[in-house]
Amino acid sequence: MPPSRGRLLIGGLRGSSGKTALTLGLIGAFARRGLAVTAFKKGPDYIDAAWHALATGNPCYCLDVFMMGADKVQRQYASKLPDSGIAVIEGNRGLFDGVDRSGSFSTAELAKLLRAPVILVVDITKMTRTAAALVLGCQRLDPELDLRGIVLNMVAGERHGTVAAAAIEDATGIPVLGSIPRLAGLRAPERHLGLVTVEETPDALSRFRSIAAGMEGRLDVDRIIDIAYAAPDAPCPAPPSPAGWRSPHPVKIGVIRDSAFPFYYPENLEALTEAGAELVWIRALDDAELPEIDALYIGGGFPETHGSLLAGNHRFRDSLRRAANDGLPIYAECGGTVYLGRKLYYQGERFNMAGVLPLDFEFCPRPQGHGYTQWRVDRENPFYPVGSLIRGHEFHYTRVREWDPGLGSICSVERGVGFPGRREGVVIGNVAAFYGHIHALGCEIWARGLVEAAVRRRARE
């Protein structure tokens, strides 16, 4: 009897190599064959995951060993799979790129942890046999990796693809399973943080369908499905519990979620509900004011590209500032932190923000923080116990224009950038604002801390 579940991992030689477009194309092809598809993204990532969620109609879940640990990654993977169907895991960066020269926490390490066969996307722009050398290097660098197929990308023409494919197969014995031409319609839109978000792409669904349809005739889909279902059994431990605790007191936690602030891991939102919170969706772009809530969560996003709209919603900014001054617990990450500041300077313009924090931010041409983070909580605050070790990630182009060393912050930065002086977590009253993002499975105290702050707020009233 054939297995009921299949899986494969999509890797690349570098970032922006075509992994997301291929993943979207395969999701569409599998769905057209009646397969239930579950998407995963090797984190940290929000934007690619949102495109996968659009394609499957279900959340795309994060798999990241640095933030979550190997055991929780295996549990997360096992717990999110349906009884039958196929799991598609998109890697990140280059296949072997990790945090050190050994490739720790890389896409290749994740593939081995989950015993997932790898389909490698190879951009062959202006090369033919050299592509074979690249694939051969991947094959020999780690013989334990189950590298099962190659898909060529940015193919200039039929002869270009034929010569490159023959060279790769002759040198490695790995089959070439597809050839994607240099067509703009087969690529997802990009900008400074990667892909343009689903929320900012008005024709996102039709764009996905166009990519999927364009890929269909260029991939050996049936052979790829055979590879996925021939994978050995994956580790299947008991599922994780993101919160591990549930409040006996019901609370409402607002979540600002619109095209300016779309960056939320579904696991974080699930952790809050499992900890006893009712989530209230809020739009900073066009809601008149904050609703009645017991706490507020503001994730990351693109306040810089929405500066005029955010600044123009005076009533909402005023209500947010009043709520903060009145003691509403607020937890903000990255773009949400920028929104809590006084002003944002972006491409020669100045936008008024909420004015909760005495900080001005400016957008820079290069990333100011990018990669994994690790903080140690060393001061009292509304959300985290002192002594807690917190792992997460950051990716931002903004920085503080003028930093006041006397401004209260609660964490020392052991890895990453954070705020000036290797500090993280600006705290004023019940407001805590971070440049970094956390993942609930890697920071299990987070959901409880936010819900408990909401409970204290409700009790005060």
Structural write-up:
Helix content is 32%, strand content 26%. A 10-stranded mixed sheet has the order 11-10-12-13-22-21-20-17-18-23. The chain is an alpha/beta fold and 461 residues long. The mean pLDDT is 94. The chain contains 14 helices and 23 strands. It has helices at residues 19-32, 47-56, 65-68, 70-80, 107-114, 129-141, 158-172, 204-216, 221-229, 266-274, 307-312, 314-325, 335-340, 445-460, and strands at 5-12, 37-42, 61-63, 85-90, 118-123, 147-155, 176-181, 190-191, 194-195, 251-256, 277-282, 295-298, 330-333, 343-346, 349-352, 360-363, 369-377, 389-396, 398-400, 409-415, 423-428, 431-434, 437-438. A hairpin with a 2-residue loop joins strand 21 and strand 22 (431-434). It starts with a strand and ends with a helix. The chain has 2 domains: 5-229, Rossmann fold (3-Layer(aba) Sandwich), CATH 3.40.50; 251-460, Class I glutamine amidotransferase (GATase) domain (Rossmann fold, 3-Layer(aba) Sandwich).
Blueprint (SSEs and pairs):
Elements: E1 5-12, H1 19-32, E2 37-42, H2 47-56, E3 61-63, H3 65-68, H4 70-80, E4 85-90, H5 107-114, E5 118-123, H6 129-141, E6 147-155, H7 158-172, E7 176-181, E8 190-191, E9 194-195, H8 204-216, H9 221-229, E10 251-256, H10 266-274, E11 277-282, E12 295-298, H11 307-312, H12 314-325, E13 330-333, H13 335-340, E14 343-346, E15 349-352, E16 360-363, E17 369-377, E18 389-396, E19 398-400, E20 409-415, E21 423-428, E22 431-434, E23 437-438, H14 445-460
Parallel strand pairs: 1-4, 1-5, 2-3, 2-4, 5-6, 6-7, 10-11, 10-12, 12-13, 13-22, 14-16
Antiparallel strand pairs: 8-9, 14-15, 16-19, 17-18, 17-20, 18-23, 20-21, 21-22
Helix pairs in contact: 1-2, 1-8, 6-7
